[in-house]
Here is the input.
Amino acid sequence: MEHWHTLHIPRQSFRLGVYRVLLLTSKGATTPGVDEVTLDGFSEERVTSIITRLKSGTYRFQPVRRTYVPKKNGKKRPLGISSGDDKLVQEVVRIILERIYEPIFDDHSHGFRSGRSPHTAFVGYELKTYSADRVIKLKRGTRHTWVKSLSEQIQLHLPQDTMQKFCAQRGYGNYATGKATHKPQWMNLTDAEIILAYNGEFRGLANYYALATGVKKTLHKLEWIWQTSLLKTLANKHKTGVNKMVKQLKTQEGLRLAVKREQETRYINVFRLKDRRSPAPHNPQPDVQLNGYVWTLSFSEVTKRLNRKRCEYCETTEGPFEVHHVRKLKDVAKGKAFWQRMMAARHRKTLVLCRTCHHRLHAGTLASQRASQEGRKGRAVCIERCTHGSEGG
Here is the structure.
């Protein structure tokens, strides 16, 4: 007899966590498949429909659209583009399988794992030995004598090219010149998520090489580039300068962010090498790689905006609501339509719209915000009059 086990994941993870993965980080999220369906127009109703079909066993995958992309050698390689709904389901399957197998994978396994590759399988310490001849005085019986003694010492060191590779792979900037850059792909995250994600990456590297000799001194330059990249990302998000961000975050305990809640205020410290303590040699914690996706794939402002159930254009609260998405901000930067100016001014690639406004946007008939609001009020007055008129008749 076959036994089936059901893995339950939060509905929010299915609905909005995957939306972030595919829409905010993937360039192909708005590329249509054979049915011309993309992830533009994401809504709760759409996910509910997919979940219902998956549970009933009636969901069917669409054929993959085949296209060819050029290679550096002049040739072309085939590429299959799935339907928008299929991408969503595929990503959910990936998340489920990762949650099942990631905890039980051997730590030496690097293939097809999040944040790992064949290149990471060669990451380790450099071993250096030091020897010196010493002349020491020893007592042998009743006599003292001088003998030569060999002093051998083995030290663990951080590989020289590790900092450069880590800096380039994480997108902090140029390690050789010391020039830091911001991460545009993280600007849609909240300030707390940005700091936690940056902390997770650099703390993970510092913990991994915690046993290296002089690790704080070795990582000092990388720490400066990393912190500057963090501050530039926050500054670009808020359209301000790095110095102003430092003034906002600076405290006696270092840089920290105050996150106000209903009943309390939480403080998130920016990681510092000076606060790190060297673990005991038998402590297995340095070998545990922190998963930064916990922060970069968590719920962000787009989640809160969608849950407000309010059209950001006409301000109606009558749903359903969908998320309009553009591939790049430069697509709307020079636009003349009011909705384009809204997205450009807010520096967002997403706009929460009611279904009426979203359909009119794609049809090119979306009126100005004032006209849309007046039209909505007019419809409401008309409905109210008709309702009262029918009751009176």
